[in-house]
Amino acid sequence: MSDHVHDENCNHDHDHEEHVFLVTDEEGIEREMVMVFTFESEEQVYSVLLDRNDPEADGVIFRIEEEDGEAFLVGIEDDAEWERVTKIYEEIAKSENEA
């Protein structure tokens, strides 16, 4: 986990309005991911994150869960849930590209 605080005192260029998360991939590599989109399905909220340093890479979908007033990202392990949310996101992305 990074100890860097993103506030008005940090001295490098980036947009402080971004929702940036540190996500560890399957190989144990930490990546800065930016939340670019959220959507709902079956009373669950999902978020699409892009690699901040490789915005052309495919996005990753996480379920957003809340506990004790705090939100956190959860990987989707269930194949049926994964198929459902990727299909929804593909439709959303397709309609966004057509607009």
Quick gist of this model?
This protein is an alpha+beta fold. Helices cover 20% and strands 38% of the residues. Pfam families: DUF1292.
Textual characterization of the structure:
- It comes from Paenibacillus lignilyticus.
- This is DUF1292 domain-containing protein.
- The chain has about 100 residues and is of the alpha+beta class.
- The chain is built from one helix and five strands, in the order βββββα.
- Strands 1-2-3-4-5 form a five-stranded antiparallel sheet.
- Strand 3 (about 45-50) and strand 4 form a beta hairpin.
- The longest helix has 20 residues, at about 80-99.
- The termini are far apart.
- Residues about 1-10 have low confidence and may be disordered.
Assign a percent range to the helix content. 10-25%
Mean pLDDT: 82
The ordered string of helix (H) and strand (E) elements is EEEEEH
Unreliably modeled segments: 1-12
The radius of gyration is 15 Å
Structural class: alpha+beta
Helix and strand topology:
Blueprint: E1 20-24, E2 30-41, E3 44-51, E4 60-67, E5 70-74, H1 79-98
List keywords for this structure.
single chain; 99 residues; alpha+beta; 1 helix; 20% helix; 38% strand; globular; disordered N terminus; UPF0473; DUF1292 domain-containing protein
